[in-house]
Automatic annotation (TrEMBL):
The lineage of its organism: Bacteria, Pseudomonadati, Bacteroidota, Bacteroidia, Bacteroidales. 3-amino-2-oxopropyl phosphate binds at residues 7, 18, 191, 213-214. Pathway: Cofactor biosynthesis; pyridoxine 5'-phosphate biosynthesis; pyridoxine 5'-phosphate from D-erythrose 4-phosphate: step 5/5. It comes from the Bacteria. The record marks 151 as: Transition state stabilizer. This is Pyridoxine 5'-phosphate synthase.
């Protein structure tokens, strides 16, 4: 069964826009769980443009589903994750100045670094996931580095899907088969939406978890959060 983890970064973006506590990010996280989300994802970026470190500490003890923290493994990020101990940590290769995640790891050229970081989280009992492009070699080196899972960076799929679904999905099926062959768990995320999610799922039904934020929160502005979560879960059947 493919689980839906709701990324609440953009709820924090709205909260931060006025400097107060509306919308209440913690309440939204708990409501997402009540509406059927099977996990909550946050990406506490160094500039705290949306999710703040304080959000991470506040949310952690209250969640009933899975907590996934994404980020670049800086010393500060590693310390935060080891203190909070989420169910899963997802390593992304983002530079602090990036507007959003726009690439997967070069797991081959970062093998030693990733191996050392992943080992620290593994020893702390935290499931690890490495954000990679749909590239067989990048998946293979994520396995070599000791990751429990890979998360396929799905922006290229989302961009090409409307023009050519079969071409869009092809590299992702190959990368997903490689992950399965190597015994890696499989996540996927970035720019997934109600337009493209079901086709991804139908072609790669063994995905463990999709983490979706930007499109889901945008859809919720029109249909409401509860209906949005139900609609996204309906794409995973
Ligand atoms: C790793 C990934 O693809 C998403 O978590 C993305 O990083 C979202 O970050 P923003 O919400 O800051 O765009
Ligand atoms: N890992 C992807 C994620 O958490 C959310 O990405 P997006 O849906 O905001 O593009």
């Amino acid at each position: 069964m493919t689980k839906l983890s709701v990324n609440i970064n953009k709820v924090a973006t709205l909260r931060n826009a006025r400097g107060g506590n509306t919308p209440n990010v913690t309440k939204v996280a708990l409501d997402c769980e009540m509406f059927g989300a099977e996990g909550i994802t946050v990406h506490p970026r160094p500039d705290e443009r949306h999710i703040r470190r304080s959000d991470v500490y506040e949310i952690r003890p209250l969640l009933k589903t899975e907590f996934n923290i994404e980020g670049y493994p800086s010393p500060e990020f590693i310390e935060l994750v080891l203190q909070v101990k989420p169910n899963q940590v997802t390593l992304v290769p983002d530079d602090p100045s990036q507007i959003t995640s726009n690439s997967g790891w070069d797991t081959k050229n970062n093998l030693a670094f990733l191996t050392e970081v992943l080992d620290r989280f593994t020893r702390a009992g935290i499931r690890t996931s490495v954000f990679v492009a749909a590239d067989v070699e990048m998946v293979e080196y994520a396995a070599k580095a000791g990751a429990d899972r890979v998360e396929l960076y799905t922006e290229p799929y989302a961009t090409l899907y409307p023009k050519d679904p079969e071409a869009a999905i092809a590299p992702f099926v190959e990368a997903a088969k490689t992950a399965r062959r190597l015994g890696l768990g499989l996540n996927a995320g970035h720019d997934l939406s109600l337009v493209n999610l079901n086709y991804l799922y139908k072609n790669i039904p063994w995905i463990d978890e999709v983490s979706i934020g930007h499109a889901l929160i945008s859809d919720a502005l029109y249909m409401g959060l509860e209906k949005a979560i139900h609609e996204y879960k309906n794409c995973l059947r």
